[in-house]
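Step 1: inspect the first sequence and its tokens.
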Amino acid sequence: MNSPMEHLMIQPAKTMMTIRNQLMMLCMLMLTSCMGVPDGVKVVNGIDANQYLGTWYEITRLDHSFERGLVNVTATYSLRDDGGIKVVNRGFNPETKQWKEAEGKAYFVDPKNADGSYSGKLKVSFFGPFYGAYNIIELDKPYYNYVMLCGPDKSYFWILSRTPQLPYPIKQHLIAKAKELGFATDQLIYVPQSADIVDYEAGRHVRH
């Protein structure tokens, strides 16, 4: 039988273990919520990672703090030595006349398919060990000329193109589909892409 002193020593230890377990569960829940796919939305399957590399121009997005006020926004993807993807997001702030750039890393979440392709569910990080969801929900295959993306919920949404402008019928088709999926398309920001600032180097994609 434990002495009163031993009992007092055991209780704080149990309490600390309980708090630690609760914190671990909370962290796991937060990470899971950051890595999900919104309800009613499916990711594209059969993605060729090499075809996806290169430069993409941001056509439209929902507002968020880390891109607020930026124009001429691009995302450039290249292979990392560890098999992941290097991500460089770049945009121009017309008020400060300065470029803003962020470098991160991304990894496909699911294992490779039998043919070496992937599902369109990735995790991306710009801040150390913390990852967020990067979901490819529409993709121009096999040409990889445009893509529609979202985050873990419907407050994060982008349309990217291999060229600074996306033809109107394609853009409207994508926006109509996004509206059907429940994204707030009436709040979309259409990103100016100016030839006076950006060097329009084509991304790596199929041209024929």
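Step 2: inspect the second sequence and its tokens, then contrast the two.
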Amino acid sequence: MTTKTRPRRATSAGKKTSPTKSSIPQTLLRIVNSALEDMKAVNVKVMDVRQLTDITDVVVIASGNSDRHVKSIADRVVQFAKQNDFQPMGVEGQREGEWVLVDLTDVVVHVMLPRVREFYGLEKLWEDAEPPAMSSETSPVPAPRRKVATRARAAR
């Protein structure tokens, strides 16, 4: 198994600077939240982990009611991200559907069954993380419009 590494954002003079609350990927976070709300994800927790790791900025953990629900939630996150020009770096666990991870680089989304979530306890791993502050100056990203077939199209 090979591990992919990704470059972090460039900092001035190659030194690591302390990130500010405004540098959180607000747009991407709103897209993820829209997808989770659209699919009625349960027990959503958003954690700012920039001070704890260099892997990502925000970790989102959500639960689904069944393996099919977990897969559907993850698919919707990927769909909304792609429609808004954010290409996922990777998606893992879709076949089993107990725990699906969607890596959007700055935001990592974990969608799990409640029993799996309780067993692994990711919230305990990131217990020092704080919820990210949402910027009030930007408006929420609307959910993508759904295509509705009209009778004329259906008759063709």
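Step 3: confirm your contrast with the notes below.
Residues 127 and 147 are 41 Å apart (CA to CA). The helical segments are 26-38, 67-83, 114-120, 122-125, 151-155.
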